[in-house]
Structures are given as structure tokens and as C-alpha cells.
Amino acid sequence: MTKRAVIVGAGFGGLHAARVLANREIDVLLIDRNNYHTFTPLLYQVATCGLEASEIAHPVRPVFRGAGNISFLLAEVTSIDTAGQVITVRMSDGDDREREEQYDYLILAAGSVTNFFGNEQVKANSFELKSLDDSLALRNHILRLFERAVWTQDSDARQALTTVVVVGAGATGLETAGALYELYAKVFQREFAGLTPRIVLVEATDKVLAPYPEELRSAAREQLESLGVEVRLGAPVVEAASNYVVLKDGSKIGTHTLIWAAGVKASPLADMLGVKLERGGRVRIKPTTEVEGLERVYVVGDMAYLEDAHGQPYPMMIPVAKQQGVLAAENILRDLKGWQPHEFRYIDRGIMATIGRSRAVAYIFNRIKLRGYLAWIAWLTLHLIALLGFHNRLAVFLHWVWNYFTFDRSVRVILGDQPEKAPTMQVEA
Q1: CA 327 – CA 3 distance, rounded (Å)
Q2: Given a cut of 80, is residue 421 above it in pLDDT?
Q3: pLDDT score of 196
Q4: Which of 157, 180, 160, 176 is CA-nearest to residue 168?
Q5: What are the beta bridge partners of residue 101?
Q6: Is residue 177's pLDDT more than 60?
Q7: Cβ contact 395:401 at 8 Å
Q8: Within 10 Å of residue 26's Cβ, how many Cβ atoms?
Q9: Which of 62, 164, 354, 369 has the fewest beta carbons under 10 Å from its own?
Q10: What is the DSSP letter of 155?
């Protein structure tokens, strides 16, 4: 009888695992709550009017059109029975219908969610950037605030409407802050006369881009501040409301847009395994990516906790998820043949972050340090190559070329009703 593998999550880890198993002697069911794969590194560009949502998303089903052994199910996992080797799923469109899916092998690649560190004030009054819905909600919110600012006579209230506080000085925080300032300085100031936008990047620690060498950290901060972004280090948020935030040093910033990019934790799906979880809700795995204490259950990507040779957990980054997804699938194929599994060997090709037009830092293979224009070109090239689908690559490339030569952001249409995620605004006109 043909064995069956169930993969939960069509992100980078799950998608790469499914690709390895395509057209092999095993039935594969790929499950995700969305019918598309999202290229998450460019979510901030959707939020800042640089790209259309469809340009960084690709439908899952066409990816495996030629693989007869792979099927896709639009669903959410509601429970996992590792003893009975069965998961229970529910349709993710609001329908209450559930059904059970048997498996011989299970790969969990459900990624991560935003970590608010228990701060309910921040959670209720901030935006996150983990999904296309998040990006579109933030984009609509920003556009509405500027239109509202035109109607507002009080100068303090108007300033609060055009002030954004970005919390977290990792790559996402820097990229979002830089893109927002360029949107404001290059586009909005030509269209909303008299408004003075303000972008503040807040970080609880004393450095930006903590994993980078000091030279590149300094370069990143220098490039960000040269744009006009205010950088506040060692200043965690202690209070958040719909129209202001308060930092630990007592300073109060009037704003209706708080973007939280200060950390992530593993998907709550990890709780369903019934095993002890590590910091950040991550599941401890063997070097084979199999869960410790569970047979034929694999966890990859942001959900997985595996220490490197120095005793440090591998970072929650896309390259790690891709390589672990591939290894998990390969080890399933090896198990089918009765062979011993391989162990994870991370190939680290480096890290990079863009800060704006012709501004970036890159640490290629953790040896070559680039900053400015060369780093920016390297970032653009890598992200274009990594995008799924030729149409998406072409559309993103054309948008980037247009934005570069015209200083324009063409995606500035307010769509739909006020998003539920947006904090309630209390503004006196």
C-alpha cells in the first residue's frame, strides 16, 4: 500500500518539502489556510504602496499541476492525534465542517505568528506584517489617515495622523521604516501639501540589525537616518493607545499607526503535539528534523527548535525553513527505502536588508560586507530570483523600475471598508 504524507503549511518549508516529494512513490496532501504561497519578504512593499498583493502571491495548485501524487486542501488544522496518526481539519472559509486525514508521515511547517510578549495594549492598537491581509489593512489605514489629515485643522492632531512608529529594528522594521519614509517624502508630499510626515523606529535594545557585524549595523543606521527616519534605541514601548505610544524613557509620541515588528513565536499548532516546547513556543527536533519523542512527525522552519554546533538555535529565517523542508522530505523518502536519515547541515549564504532606494546592507556568506548601492542591487537580484512564478517576477521587476525612475508608488487605491484590525481612531477635526 502506498504511504501517505501530510504537509501542513504552504510557506517556504512546506512548499520545498512538497517539491521534493512530487512524482515520488508516496501520496502527499498539502494543507494551508490560504490557497496561495506568500513571498513574505515583500509584504512591507505591499503595505507601503510599492507592489500589488497579487504580485507577491502565487496559487498553490498550479505549482503541482504536473505532480499526480500531490493534492491540496484549503483548511485549518484543529487537532493532531500523533498516536492514531490522524489530524482533524476544518474548512478555512468560516464553514464548520470538519474531517479527519490519516497520515503515515506528518510535516508541520506552519511558520510563526507575531509575538506581542503578553502586551495586550500593543496587540489591540498595532499593525503586524505577517500576511497579505495585514499588509492591505495597513496600506488602507495609512491612505485613509492622510485623507483625514487634510480635513483636520488642529496641528497636533494632524501630526499624529501622519506619524508612524515602527517597533523593532530587525530587517522587517528597517525595511518598513525606510519604505514608508520614501513613500511620504517622494510621493505624499507632492500630493498632500502642508503635511509633515514623521517616521520613528523604536528598538528596545541598543542596536539595529543585531545579527550583523558592527560595521554594517552602523552603516544601516546611518543610511536610515540619512533618509529622515528617527531612530530611538534602548526605548521599549511601555504603553500603547489608539492615538499615542509611550516609551520607557517617558516620551510620548502621538500616532495612530503603530507597526509591531519586534518579534515572532511559533505557530500555535505546536501546542497540539503534546510535547514540551522551547522558548518562543518552538518544537525541539532531532538533527533529522523529526520531533523528539514522536515517530514520523517532522517539524521545520520557524516552528522548529534545533541548536547549531555552538549551542544556539537556528534562526527563524526563510533559508533555514527551505533547507529543513527539503531534508524532512528527503528523510521520508529514505525511510521508505529503509535507509538511515541524514542530519541537518545549514548552508548559510548570508543576510541582507534594504533600507530604501539605493540603500542596503549585505553580509554575503558571512564574509563579504556590502553597503549602499551594491548591497541594494544584490538584495533586488536575490528577491527577484526567489519569487515564485515568471509573471510575478516580471510584474515586480517592472514596478521596481517604474518606482526607481519616476519616484512614484502607483498602488494607492483605498479598497474595502475600514479593516477590523485598525485601531479605533479618536481624532478631532
Answers
A1: 18
A2: no
A3: 87
A4: 176
A5: 87
A6: yes
A7: no
A8: 19
A9: 62
A10: H
User: Nearest-CA neighbor of 145 among 254, 258, 243, 256?
Assistant: 256
Answer yes or no: is pLDDT of 429 > 60: no
User: What is the full DSSP assignment across 225-237?
Assistant: HHHT-EEEES--E
Least Cα distance to 138 among 416, 428, 427 occurs for 416
CA angle (325, 174, 47) in 5-degree steps? 75
Cell digits for 220?
A: 544601516
Per DSSP (E only), the strands in 1-157 are 4-8, 27-32, 36-38, 57-59, 70-81, 86-91, 98-102, 105-108, 112-114
> Is pLDDT at 424 greater than 50 in this prediction?
no
Q: What phi, psi does 405 have (nearest 5°)?
A: -85, -20
In the chain, the domains with their CATH numbers are: 4-114+264-336 (3.50.50.60), 120-262+350-406 (3.50.50.100)
Concatenated DSSP letters of 25-52: SSEEEEEESSSEEE-GGGHHHHHTTSS-
User: Parallel, antiparallel, or unpaired: how do β-strands 244-247 and 237-240 relate?
Assistant: antiparallel
Integer Cα distance of 154 and 152 in angstroms: 6
- Map grid coordinates 498602488 to a residue: 411
Q: Beta partners for 277?
A: 283
Single-letter amino acid, residue 293: G
User: Pairing between strand 297-299 and 264-266?
Assistant: unpaired
Q: What are phi and psi of 402, to 5 degrees?
A: -60, -45
**Site of grid cell 542596536:** 207
Do 14 and 29 form a contact (C-beta atoms < 8 A)? no
Straight-line distance from the first to the last Cα atom of the chain, in angstroms, rounded to the nearest whole number: 70
Q: What are phi and psi of 104, to 5 degrees?
A: -100, -30
> In this predicted structure, what is the pLDDT of residue 427?
43
Q: Which helix (H) or strand (E) holds 330?
A: helix 318-336
Grid cell, residue 186, equals: 517622494
Q: Could you give the residue numbers annotated as active site?
A: 175
Tell me what pLDDT residue 325 has. Answer: 98
